[in-house]
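In this supplementary section we document a worked example of the pipeline. Step one takes a protein sequence of length 305 as its only input; no multiple sequence alignment statistics are reported here. Step two produces a three-dimensional model, which step three serialises into structure tokens for compact storage. The input and output of this example are shown verbatim.
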Amino acid sequence: MKAEMFNEIRPELMNLARRMLGSSVEAEDMVQEACLRWERAPTTEVRSPKAFLTTIVTRLCLNHLDLARVRLEHEDAPLLLENSFSQARSPAEHAEFTDALSEALRTVLGNLSPTERVVFLLREAFEFDYADIALVVDRSEENCRQILRRARERLATRETSAEPEREQNQRVVSEFLNAAETGQFEQLLNLLSDGAALAPAPPDLTKPAPPLVYDREALFQILGKSLAQMRQGSDRFDFFPVGQDYACVARSGRIAKGAILLRVLGQKVGAVRVVICPALLNRLKILMTANTGGDGQSETDYHSN
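The serialised model returned by step three reads:
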């Protein structure tokens, strides 16, 4: 009987987990864990199987993203782009990069209470209805609206301890991306640091990544092509600081189509990484939402001339 109930709800749970994690493989793991918990749960304590399973899957996904608990070791958690610039990058190193993104998420949302984080993310990042959010956090719909309003206010008024050079670094990032997209090779060269490299996007994070690109002309061509592909089907490019790095996300509405991650060192771009993996893009989308306080506007907008 319990197995039949679970199988009936399972497609909805998979859609929910995929929506939150951006990965079918990770979603399958979360749903399987929810199944195990469902089998162990006393039937008499479950008033609504759908609400119970939806809540379990949602919380498992948030825990998987490391957003339901705070485990900060540093006040500032960069994307650790340097992890991608070793010559022998393995799946384990890709996992480290994913963890770094999760840590950056915790940094941005660290001043929200657990309930505020859940309500904010479900509404702003995953576009849940208030009725569904109320089931997850066991609050009324009106109370969820109030919680969301408080979360937005906290994010909007959080103290910005940005370095004095942040505004200048943002200008470097914007000019660098604009030079790549509009074909200004000499301008791009002027903004690259010595030894700068680009990490192309691997087709699959389970496979070895393409070799790093150090050649200036090849870097210019790959970056320009990547930006052009991201521009197709996107309505804007947004970029925002994450620790000492910068993320430029091509998006269509709330959907992230691709991203460029950059590290600025001494007012020069020292590292570039192209991201197309859905799971990593999903984390960047959450970061973008959190950085804007849910209003859809990034700290700085990037548009090519």
